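Listing S7. Sequence submitted for prediction.
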Amino acid sequence: MPKITGYRLVKEEYEYELSLDLDDQAIMEDQLSIDVIARRRHIKEAEWIEVKVTLKFEFPKPIVRVFVEDKHIGDINLDFIRIDGGDDLGPDWDPLESAYEGTPLENAIELIPVDPVFGCLIKAGISTTLGQSIRCYDRARETHEGFRQRIRETFVCLGDSSVLMIMRATARTFRCMIMLGF
C-alpha cells in the first residue's frame, strides 16, 4: 500500500503520527480505499498505539463506507457534496465537515478510546482524505468518460496532492487542538 502522506508531531510527553495510505489492490478492482492511520506513543517508550480508519469509496455511488479497525461504523453520503477549487481551509470545506458532524458516524468516531490530541489527528486525517478524494474525483469526472479511467486518475491526483494534504491535515489538527484548549 503506497503511503501518500504522513507527518509527526510532539505534544508534551507524547509523539503522534498520521499517515494516509492508498490501497493499490483496490485500484486494480476499480475501487478507491484509503487507510487513515493515527499512531501515538510515549516519548520514552518504543511501542506505538495505532488506530486505523478505512474509507472505502463506493463509486459510482456517492457513498463512503467508514471502518475502524476493519469494523464498519457508518457511511457518509456524498450525494450533495461537490468541492470546487478552494485550496484554503475556508468555507469550501464547510459542506464536507457538516456531512458527518453530529451524525452517528461522528459520534462513533468520538467513541474511539483515544486522548483528545489523538482524536484531532484522526478527524483531520478523515476530513482531509475525504475532501481531497472528492476534489480529485470531481476533476477526473470532468475530463474522463470511462469510470475505470476516472478511478485511476483520482488515484494519481491523490498522489500528486500529497504535500497539500500534509498541510491541510496539519492545519486541521492544530485548529482542533486550539479549539480544545491545547
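Caption to Listing S7: primary sequence and predicted C-alpha cells for the chain studied. Residues 74 and 105 are 5 Å apart (CA to CA). Confidence is low (pLDDT under 50) at residues 85-93.
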